[in-house]
Design a protein that fits this description.
- This is Cytochrome b5-related protein.
- The chain crosses the membrane at residues 154-172, 179-200, 256-279, 300-319, 325-344.
- Residues 51-114 form the Cytochrome b5 heme-binding domain.
- Helix content is 51%, strand content 5%.
- By secondary structure, the chain is mainly alpha-helical.
- A three-stranded antiparallel sheet has the order 1-2-3. It has a two-stranded parallel ribbon with strand order 4-6.
- A hairpin with a 2-residue loop joins strand 1 (57-59) and strand 2.
- Helix 7 (149-171) runs antiparallel to helix 8, helix 8 (175-200) packs across helix 15 (318-341) and helix 14 (305-314) packs across helix 15.
- It is globular and about 65 Å long.
- The relative contact order is 0.13.
Length: 452
């Protein structure tokens, strides 16, 4: 509830002047949020401007120099390379479940930060998230070590299906076989990309590279999704919200006159977002100094190997193989983004603003639970979990855990939600589709409710 009747007017005025959040008026409006191409590198740059990390890595109120730790970081050097100069508190807390990791971090302590954290989220020892994390860590020790192989079999099967049907779409001369192969290849590409998301959150592994078959960079996705959306869902720091603006607004906005057209904009653009992300990244080579050397890697060419594979195997002309690949790519893009935007977040009740009772901070885990809507008709099948972003609440709370592990954590989650009065919500996939459309037409925020 707002502390006084003028709260919303003041908050909207500050937001319009880009001086603060609407949700958390004590915080700085994210630097560079509305500038340029709204790409992941720009998001990291803006975050570094606001985080007070002084070119180091910030965790809570401490500054750490992890440069010498990069090459021995169990999760891979890339996570630390990307986040240097920023506040990584939320990432540190949810990516590391083993309590022993704090002793490793302490070895690299430099000094105390000079400015308060520009984040509303807390991680108190007796709070919801840390209590839940301790219980999940204990439960993990009881699970089989090879439980993740269920996930591996699904993504491997999808990848093989995509490779086979993409080639068959060029090999066959029968119209119906070509059309069926094209549609199955498109669906397999979309599902492989979704399933690869399970691996992008974790330490470096070969399956995360399958994401790049979509011509989208998994490295960029680690920023826009794992470091932005996952840590700050449904807030101004969520790049998967700001990245669609000014065409689609999911955050409530006054005087939004074209919200009713958002669904048509989505349907018209989703089929082109895979190639658009590729070309947007390509443009940055001409707009940013040394962008290619700093942000391009060998795996960025993986998507181009698909039309080459189709051409070589089929014996058709490269032009024909390339055109078929474009059809598969764009159809796969349409499927992927329809799955993504209707997955778990774009529901009116999940976007809430205002202060939490008398506090201006809140437990990070409580925010994650209340920013997600799980779907019972997705969670009832592990294949659908892997291909439709299932077990989404637990995935947000513990992104580095394999999806095959998450289903074993529900009793612990429910117990802690009841204890801390967290609003764990479940609905259906159809309801998420309908509510996502409604969300784009909302002009005024809903206030956070008092937790009693």
């Amino acid at each position: 509830m707002p502390p006084n009747g003028d709260y919303l007017d003041i908050a909207f005025k500050r937001a319009a002047e880009k001086k603060t959040h609407v949700s958390f008026p004590q915080l700085v409006y994210p630097s560079l949020r509305d500038d340029g191409l709204r790409d992941p590198v720009q998001w990291l740059t803006g975050k570094a401007m606001d985080d007070g990390a002084e070119g180091l890595w910030r965790v809570h109120d401490g500054l750490y120099d992890l440069q010498s730790f990069l090459d021995i970081h169990p999760g891979g050097a890339e996570w630390l390379e990307l986040t240097k100069g920023t506040d990584i508190t939320e990432a540190f807390e949810c990516h590391h479940l083993n309590p022993a990791v704090i002793k490793v971090l302490d070895k690299y302590y430099v000094r105390k930060a000079q400015t308060p954290r520009n984040s509303p989220f807390t991680f108190k020892d007796d709070g919801f998230y840390r209590s839940l994390k301790r219980a999940v860590w204990e439960e993990l020790q009881k699970l089989p070590k090879r439980i993740h192989e269920r996930s591996d079999r699904i993504i491997d099967g999808l990848f093989i299906c995509f490779i086979a049907t993409s080639a068959l779409s060029c090999i066959s001369k029968d119209y119906w076989i070509v059309m069926a192969s094209y549609l199955v290849a498109s669906l397999s590409l979309a599902w492989t990309t979704v399933a690869a998301h399970n691996y992008i959150h974790r330490k470096t592994n070969w399956r995360m590279y399958l994401f790049n078959l979509s011509m989208w960079s998994y490295r960029d996705f680690r920023v826009s999704h794992a470091l932005s959306h996952h840590l700050y869902p449904n807030t101004l720091l969520d790049l998967e919200i700001s990245g669609f603006e000014p065409f689609v607004f999911w955050l409530p906005l006054k005087n939004l006159f074209y919200g009713i057209f958002a669904i048509f904009i989505e349907l018209a653009s989703f089929g082109f977002l895979f190639p658009i992300n590729f070309f947007k990244r390509l443009m940055l080579n001409f707009l940013r100094k040394d962008f290619f050397f700093n942000h391009y890697r060998w795996h960025d060419i993986l998507g181009f190997l698909v039309p080459v594979w189709m051409w070589v195997v089929s014996g058709s002309s490269f032009y024909d193989a390339f055109i078929m690949w474009l059809w598969i790519l764009c159809t796969g893009s349409f499927i992927f983004f329809n799955i993504g935007t209707n997955a778990a977040h774009h529901h009116p009740v999940l976007f809430r603003d205002g202060d939490e009772v008398d506090e201006i901070t809140r437990d990070w885990g409580l925010h994650e639970v209340e920013a997600v809507m799980d779907r019972r008709d997705i969670n009832n099948s592990f294949f659908k979990v892997m291909t439709f972003f299932g077990h989404h609440t637990l995935h947000h709370l513990f992104p580095t855990l394999d999806h095959a592990v998450l289903e074993h954590m529900y009793p612990i989650l429910i117990e802690h939600c009841e204890k801390y009065k967290a609003k764990f919500r479940v609905t259906t996939q159809f309801d998420m589709v309908v509510q996502q459309i409604k969300l784009t037409t909302i002009k005024s925020p809903k206030l956070l409710e008092i937790n009693k």
